[in-house]
Specification:
The structure holds two protein chains of two kinds.
Chain A: E1 10-15, H1 21-35, H2 39-60, E2 68-74, E3 81-88, H3 111-119, E4 122-127, E5 133-140
Antiparallel strand pairs in A: 1-2, 2-3, 3-5, 4-5
Helix pairs in contact in A: 1-2, 2-3
Chain B: E1 10-16, E2 19-25, H1 33-44, E3 50-57, H2 63-78, E4 82-86, H3 90-98, E5 106-108, H4 111-115
Parallel strand pairs in B: 2-3, 3-4, 4-5
Antiparallel strand pairs in B: 1-2
Classes of the chains: A alpha+beta, B alpha/beta.
Chain lengths: ~150, ~120
């Protein structure tokens, strides 16, 4: 497997359409594999990005399609891993308003934030300049979790 | 990453006696979980004794797909219908483990095992 591209970051802009989620999952998976994450970590990063985007669509944009979501994927050799920023221009959302809930229960809803918290090493929500929210997530590439 | 298509989420519903085997295909994400849930609840309306949800052809499921199954499970318990999941791919199994719902659902390796 070749390493990640020399030029970074990768920036994607999608619409707040659920149909765009699969495209982003594919891009994130491809990058994570090139960075060297093992299968489990790739799954964790892909799931976290997908849940974060779903939360933007459902909560920040209240299900409205056609609104912009900006995604930045970055990595460095100095701190191996991936840093993902997701910026929306929707209603500011308090993470507590959509979870997390205790896992293992039978109440649907609020699972997404729990998944992101469990799967990523760092999660930070903050208001974006000019409106909206920026979510930053980091997954470190631990030596033991490198793809052999 | 997994398959996503314009085809329907539910590929087939097969009946073995009064057990309904629901074969699902493709990713179940925010784009398709509404359709997924409606299809499953539609099977429940036919009053089976048991529903076996076959996820062997589901490469990816997000929390909205899981929530659909949680809703189905709640209704199945109220109606005393057995609900079993089979054929979880590694990635789908992951989301059940992370949410710790793997201990709440009855999960089997194969359809045959789920029908036994």
């Amino acid at each position: 497997m070749t390493g990640p591209p020399d030029e970074r970051p990768i920036r994607l802009t999608i619409f707040s359409s659920p149909a765009h989620l699969a495209v982003v999952r594919g891009a994130v998976e491809g990058l994570c594999r090139r960075i060297g994450f093992d299968d489990e970590c790739v799954t964790h990063v892909v799931m976290s990005v997908d849940e974060a985007l779903s939360n933007v669509i459902r909560h920040a944009y209240a299900g409205a399609e056609g609104e912009p979501i900006e995604i930045e994927l970055d990595w460095t050799d100095a701190q191996p891993g991936v840093r993902i920023c997701i910026r929306d221009r929707g209603q500011p959302v308090e993470p507590g308003s959509f979870g997390p809930r205790g896992p293992g229960g039978l109440r649907p809803g609020g699972l997404g934030l729990h998944i992101m918290t469990e799967c990523m090493d760092h999660l930070d929500y903050r208001p974006a300049e000019g409106g909206g929210t920026v979510l930053t997530m980091i997954k470190r590439l631990e030596p033991a979790r490198r793809r052999p | 990453m997994g398959e996503r298509s314009h085809r329907q989420c539910v590929k087939a519903v097969r009946w073995v006696s009064r057990a309904a085997i629901v074969d699902v295909r493709g990713d179940v994400d925010l784009d398709r979980s509404g359709e997924f849930q409606q299809a499953l609840l539609g099977v429940m309306d036919q009053r089976p004794e048991r529903i076996v949800v076959n996820l062997a052809e589901v490469p990816y499921m997000d929390s909205s797909g899981v929530a659909s199954l949680v809703k189905l499970l709640g209704r199945a318990r109220r109606q005393q219908v057995g609900l079993r999941l089979v054929g979880l791919t590694d990635r789908v199994r992951s989301i059940f483990q992370i949410t710790r719902l793997d201990g709440i659902f009855e999960i089997h390796a194969t359809v045959q095992e789920a029908l036994a």
